[in-house]
Records
---
Amino acid sequence: MPKTKAQNEIIREQSKEKILYAALKAFSRYGYHGTTMRMIAVQAKISKGLIYNYFLNKKEIMEFLLEQRIAQIKKIFNQEIVGTPEERINFAIREFCDNIVKNKGVIRLLISIFLQPGVRLAFNQEKKFEHKLLKDFDAYFEDVRRKLDHSQKKWTKETITIMFYGLVMTYLLDEDELKFRTASRELFNLVFK
């Protein structure tokens, strides 16, 4: 019996996810420049030709991975924060921490890829991804400040962003979730109260 359009779409999405996951693993193991489309195919246990049905080259795969991550972060940033100031700050802390904890593997892989020589430069020639991410991160914290009716500006958006980047990097290195959540709460309270 032939597959339905919906079944074919599910299979297509599963194949694409398999390719993306394999690419992340290959990029982190062999380096972005050392990874070939063949290596990604082997890692994904599919034919090399199948990858080209989804992506033109490894750069397009990497760009898709970055766009995907930025879209996930934007989804969190665009949530409405309601309730009392205390409830709103607790919501912001929980959402921030939950996202980092849930996606720590992907975040760690993307950071390791971006730390490879020449990779950051190759993908940021126009500051396309980094600028987007920093802009969204800055906008998120400015929005949290506004929604919490926090008019006193003790910190610049850039300083807040850098502090939270440091917090995320510390968590990715030591993986102590309780320490990360506690430090996040303390940082939110320091910045927004």
---
Amino acid sequence: ALLEQQPGVCAVKVFAGSSTGNLMIEDDAGLEAVMRSGHRRVAYHSEDEYRLQARKPMFHEGQPYETHSVWRDVECAFLGTRRIMALARKTNRPAHILHVSTAEELEYLADYRDISTVEVLVNHLTQVAPECYEKLGGLAVMHPPVRDRSHWEASGKAVRDGRVDGVSSDHAPHPLEAKQLPWPKCPAGLTGTQTIVPVMLDHVNAGRLSLARLVDLMAAGPARVYGLQTKGRMAVGFDADFTLVDMKAEREISNDWIVTPAGWTPFDGTRVTGWPMATIVRGTVVMQDNEVSGTPTGQPAKFAPGAGRRARNTSIRTGSCMRRGGAASRKAVLFGLVFAGIVGAGTARAAEAAWTAPKCGAEPQAPAVKAGTVAQYNESVDRVTAYEKAARVYNACVATQANREETAISQDASARIAHVHAGSAAVQSHIAASFQTLSTTLATAGRKLGHH
């Protein structure tokens, strides 16, 4: 609790499963003690250490690299997350779950949004097993592991529909020679700081998410999670931090472009569309056209003191509707579904009709709940269960349609801005040429008339 009060400390990271050295708290008593101490956001590497150790004897050195995802399987991650969220609920302390990698966790955490935030790694949004292990070998080994296509698809969907608060790289620049060791001797972890922006811009251009969603995931979202002050948005009083990108620039990521001493990237040879052209920190250009400029001017960031404090117990608990035997013991926890509608905002757009997604059909209507008798209660549970299923399908459809339209708007806006800029530049060039012609004409005439 004292160390977290030092300047520049954004959160407390807890390894619930073995990952880096001996930094680990695997037991519930230790995890609960952390949650009951301090006020910063607690971020968790969520894998169940007991399951990891129980399964370890099943494997041996030299097995294929894809064995990594078999050892650290879906249940290993899901069990770790279930344990952490149970303790978060018990202590009423918000939890940030790092590098979520499974469809099961993403669906489960949707019912804990009042007390959890979620991070997904760029690798889990981009790479797919077993192909990545066949191509990259040890350069694909990370914790949690890259998984099969079903989890890749679930991660992309969760990013689009708002269940994910941030995307990061989990940069771990192990030496190339170490990563080429046989499994499991090769250290887990990948380089990623330098490649995350171009890779994510390529996802935007491919229509997998909108540019506005990417800004939220990599700027506003992390600022919200960690209570980062004066960062994450463009506003008076905030730091002038920007990344200028060219959405149409095509580049190939290569190892010789990587500046970290590790000198390698799992995206070597990957062609992307979209590239960072300049970085501005507090109003100062620090990178332009792939060249770092000036001297380091970084300063400790400021974090709100209560970013991870205990949540107020006012939210609606969510969970599956269920029946239990006996009239006196029949209980159900009804879903509290909140839909984030995309609507016009501000007086300038007050008269504009709300955006809709007609291809998704009509929005399911919430049923009336009657519980005067056991029969009415059971009927209400059935109606609410059916509504919950229909509403989730409808919400996913709306999110997909919104993403497509946002992407189209972003691309159209880029084209229109380029068109306006070209027209403006042409006018300026024409006027400058006219001034030059007139000046030359007058000077020539003056000399002829002797008015030098």
---
Amino acid sequence: QNGKIDVPLKDNEKEKEKMEKEELERKELKEKIEGLEKQILEMKAAGFKGLDQKDEDAKKYEAKFWEWVKTGKEPPELKTDYYPINTTAAQGGYLIPQKLFGKVVEKVAQYSPIRQYAFVTTVAGDIDVVQENAGIDVAWPGETGARTEGITSGSLLASEKIIQYPQTALVLVSRKMLAQDTIVNLEDFISGLVARYVAKSEGTKFILGNGSNCPTGLLHGTLLTRVKLGIHDTPTFDDVKKVYYSVPSYARSRGVWCTNDAWMLFLSKIKTAVTTGGTPVEKIIWNSYAFGDVIGPEPNTILGRPVISCPDMTSAISTGSEDLMIFGDLKGYWITDNPYVVVQRLDELYAASGKVGFLFEFLKGGYPVDPQGLRVLANTAS
């Protein structure tokens, strides 16, 4: 009727059309699954059970929360049996909304160097983890040989409790600022400010913490094996290579260097005397042909492994006991985050200065559960 002749598709063209349709359906299904997984992770991180950010209850709670932050009136009410600690101002504060929690967590991860490579898990409370102690027995007893224990001292496996300790952050905001209707990005400002200072504080404890009301740090006691400098107070590239190869190969391939920027600067300035003709010339080793495979073109890799700046590690040596660098698989360091973060509004305490205090309380723990894949380059006694 329209002057066109309908030509039947060939079998291979039909098959191609069918395959393209199935591929499109698979792609759409994959996107839906990824979207659902993202929602589940967001809810888990925020500590809500069955309360999605898109739900009306969550939106109402978030609106009430920020109204309470600005005015101090009509505090938010969270009706859930899943939250294990009190949620009233008199009994401990209010749970921060999911969106704010997500922003804080995201920014803490950006500011905290150890957290970027460690094993991080979200759990509501202390946990017991299994760790290697004396190792496990491996033998070749033959067909009729006795199956006996080879390791006689200590248990083959041990358990370690990772305790979550309170970490607080106090934010002071002027009443005038809170009263302004035109104020924007308050959520972004508070989340960024809290995250930056929280990350700095936790970073110190992840390195130097002694386990007393704080996480146990990587350098606490003798949990990690020390590799000593060859010469007192004199780090060399030989020492760097020595600590690198002291780490088991399975961990070396995933290894990360942790050190103070002062030592990266020190390494970058090491020179060697090279004679050109009759004139001795100083040559910087950092980018030299001979050591090009040791130090990267920029101070962010050593022997091909990334370097993270840890300002809490020592920047000077003198006593013979300082820890200069950590190298190894930081997945052996466990960090536990409690998903329940609460905030208290402190009106009266700072009223005389025209300010309102907001006290955030986090619960987190840290411990080097698997130190076998980690080593420390330490100064040697004179």
